[in-house]
Design brief:
By secondary structure, the protein is α+β, with helices and mostly antiparallel strands. It has 2 helices and 6 strands.
């Protein structure tokens, strides 16, 4: 009977634990400070490229200094409208030189400048 009474006391203590408020080890009087992260914005730059192929959805270009470097650019909304007008008038041909305004490391052309040659 003593074993059952010890078991009953232990069960009652365990059942009463959630009813007792427990203090967390947090000091609410001191403010919590966090470190702010600086967001670095990268300015877009103009770079010269040689056209490999052009369509109304993308522009495939190669680097004039390194012919093996080929990049496919998609267009921003502003550049898409401009490229649609250029393509309607014949578009860029293979070998045309263009300047593309883009953020280094990204493949979205914000603006495209260059004179398209006559279609063959």
């Amino acid at each position: 009977m003593k074993a059952y009474s010890k078991l009953a006391i232990a069960a009652a203590m365990i059942a009463a634990l959630p009813l007792c408020p427990l203090r967390a080890q947090v000091d609410t009087e001191k403010p919590i400070t966090t470190r702010t992260v600086r967001v670095v914005t990268v300015k877009p730059k103009w770079k010269k490229w040689r056209v490999v192929a052009a369509s109304n959805s993308s522009l495939i270009v190669s680097d004039p200094q390194s012919e093996r470097t080929i990049v496919t650019f998609t267009y921003s909304d502003k550049a898409r409208l401009k490229m649609q007008r250029i393509i309607d008038n014949g578009g860029y041909q293979n070998g045309d030189m263009v300047r593309i305004h883009h953020v280094e490391g990204q493949t979205v052309a914000m603006d495209v400048k260059g004179k398209p040659s006559r279609p063959q």
